[in-house]
DMT family transporter (Paenibacillus lignilyticus), 299 residues
Amino acid sequence: MSISPVFPLIVGMLAISFAPIFVRYSNAPVSVQGMYRMLFTFILMLPFGVKQLPGIKAISRKDWLLLLAAGFFLALHFLLWMASLTYTSIASSTILLALEPVFVMVGAFLLFKDKPRKFAVIGMIVALIGAISIGSGDITLSQRAFFGDSLSFFGALAVAVNMLIAKQILKRVSSFLYSFIVFGVTTVCFAIYNVATSTPMSGYADREWIVFLLLAIVPTVFGHMIFNWLLKYVKPTTISMSVLAEPVGASLLGMLLFREMVTGFQLIGGAFVIAGLILYMRAEKQTHPVEVENEALSA
């Protein structure tokens, strides 16, 4: 079956836009939110991955090390970025994630000699200008906001490393098995962090468990898992560019749900993001449609 990557990209972009909203609705420590987000995703994947579990035996020692590294950097990304939402606004936090494609593009060029097309670079620049505009009305010079912005910045760097590792492993490991193992490793990383910092992992209200489950289903299953699957067919920078849509959706949701008002200038920035995305994806358009593997995708 042949499909265009556009539809799953749109689904993934919409799904990840809800991540900061769910994080804001929870009063639990971000390390606990991250742990249960990954754990519930891991459990949801179990019924669909039984047939693929024998494939674990074929994974080399080198790939296991890469999988462990991917899980660590994904945990680091979630920990830093989710924590940033405590110190700065949704718009400011998500805007700094827009730096991810810059890190990925540079990393892909240095590691894989993946030279981007001219108009792809122009599209990325346009989208970055728009993304920066979205957060410009909210970023302040206060120490608290600067700390939150710094957390989001390093969170973007961590997820870029995770994506570059994933691109290599997915040449030899199915996307489902990759996600299954990496999410498991990420859960363990969070558990170790919570034990080391004496963070309570139980005793939370029912409302919190609902938020944990929503974090697993919406931005993880319908967001990160779809992106992991698409990495087998498109460039890592293409996936990173799709993440640029998150500041648009998240800022609008933040305005509606938390009264974090978005200025007209920021709305214009959103238009630049969309224009940049369209320009980039047209430049990087695949010659052939995506051939979907015969594997269980829990989305």
User: Anything to note?
Assistant: Strands lie at 2-3, 290-291. The chain has one domain: 2-291. The CA atoms of residues 70 and 165 lie 6 Å apart.
